[in-house]
Every structure is written in C-alpha cells, then in structure tokens.
Amino acid sequence: MTNKTELTNKVKEIILDDNDMDLVGFAPVSRFEEAPLGRRPQDILPTAKSVIVFAIHVLDTLIEGLPYTRYEYTGQFYLLNGMMQTTAYKVSRYLEDQNLRTNPIPAAYPRVNKPLFGIFSHRHAAVRAGLGEFALNNLLTTPKYGASIRLISVITEAEFEYDEPYTDNYCQDCRDKCQYACVDNCPVNAISKDGFIDKHRCLHYQEQIMPWSNIELRCGMCITSCPLGKKEWPTSQGKLEKEVMEMKKDWTGARW
After folding, report:
1. What is the C-alpha separation between 256 and 246, in angstroms, rounded?
2. Each residue of 41-57: b (16+ CB within 10 Å) or e?
3. What is the pLDDT along the chain (256 residues), one digit of tens a residue?
4. What is the tens place of the pLDDT at every residue in 215-233?
5. pLDDT of residue 200
C-alpha cells in the first residue's frame, strides 16, 4: 500500500500535471458531519475516508463578454465538465488499482429536482478542502480565479495529507468595492444581499427563458459581475456595434 504522502503526490500529479487541472484539495470525511443526511460522503460511499476536490479555470474572455458570449460560455461549461469527469475517472481508476473504493461525483448533473439540489455539494467540499470560500452569490470563489471555475469531487477510501479548510472572507471584504454587483446584475433577482439564493428562479431563467437553442444556455451574470480574481487586461475590451448588441440580446434571452 502506498503511504499518504506518495498517494497524495501521485493523485496531484494525475490531476494537475497529466490532465491540466488548475486547483486540487483534500479533506477528511470528518469535516462533513454537518452535511444534510443523504449528501454526506459516507452516504454515497459508506467506507469513505476522504474527499478530493479539483477545479479548472473558465476562459476569462468568455466570462468578460457575458451575456453576449453565452453560447460560447455554455459550450465551455459542458467541455470543462467533460474534461473534469474524464480526469476524475482516471483518478478513480488509479485508486481502485490500489484496492481503494472510489466514487467520482459528476461535475453538474444529475440533480434531485424536488427539492432542488445536487447529490453532493462540490462547493461545500471545496471550502473544506481549502480551495476557496462560499461567496454571497452562492458560488465557490478562489483567490486566483474568483468564481471563474468549474468543480468536481471524488469520494474515496484512500487517506491523504489533508489541506486546511478555507477561512478567509474576501467576498465580504470586497463589498464596499463591488457594491453588491452580483445582486444588482442578476436578471431575475435571485440573489439577495443577505445571501439567500432563489435556486428555482435561477433555474427557471436558464431552462425556460434563455434556451432559444437546442442546449440549455448558462447565464453566468453573477460570475462576470464579481471583481474577485478578475483578469486585468493590458488593452481595452472594446465594444460591439449597437445593432449586434441588440441582436445578441435576443439570441441569449438577455432582454427578459
């Protein structure tokens, strides 16, 4: 059996070096004792000892261009989910080869619709694994990339060298600067200043208002509104022609 240090380093190598992910963290299942019944690691894998969480960065150009880049952003959303799920499979295969049961949790779907939640919270796991904080907009926000990331988790019997939980409060410290931009820019007022998120209103917008195409467009306005981790470009963003902007508002459901 490989020791904890060797196992940790090998899994990091698979995730970061071999598959080009950007962030990874490790947490023991003891940190999830307060998770809702049915969504704790041991409710998914009874013999679980650890949760691995990793992330990949979404292209800054697509985030900056929202809502006009919603088609491109949505395409990247599904592409990155697939890349992460392939990586999670490779990690799981490696750990199973070490005779360690391992369950990779999908990046986005499936979800439980009534009530509305995922089968496991990647964002809560990421905080416990030291990747970032829960921001006001209910997204996982990291020091380097802000909320411009996608997340995935792997639950396993393996034991690792664990990262410390994330404790900084950059989101709260930034509110005088951002003036609650994520609240003001939400198309359906699904985010409140006290941190309540109306998930049903958000989902209705993405599933019922925007899907003019044959895919479920992703909104992303809470991400592009946040200044945390936002890339500083050496040149101006430029501006679309007014006629093109109006056209793309129709294409993306941005008028609603």
Report:
1. 13
2. bebbbeebbbbbbbbbb
3. 569 999 999 999 999 999 999 999 999 999 999 999 999 999 999 999 999 999 999 999 999 999 999 999 999 999 999 999 999 999 999 999 999 999 999 998 766 666 778 899 999 999 999 999 999 998 999 999 999 999 999 999 999 999 999 999 999 999 988 999 999 999 999 999 988 899 889 988 887 766 555 667 889 999 999 999 999 999 999 999 999 999 998 888 776 6
4. 678 899 999 999 999 999 9
5. 87
The 3-state DSSP class for residue 195 equals coil
Kindly give, in sequence order, each residue whose CB lies less than 8 Å from that of residue 54, ignoring residues fewer than 6 positions away: 15, 21, 23, 24, 25, 84, 87, 88, 151, 152
Q: How far apart are CA 13 and CA 9, in angstroms?
A: 6
Of 220, 158, 157, the closest CA to residue 185 belongs to 220
Q: Tokens at residue 55, please?
A: 């992330």
Strand 23-28, strand 50-57: pairing: antiparallel
31 exposure class (CB count in 10 Å sphere: 0-12, 13-18, 19+): middle
CA distance 210 to 254: 8
Which helix (H) or strand (E) covers residue 196, if one does? Answer: none
Tokens 């196992």 belong to: 7
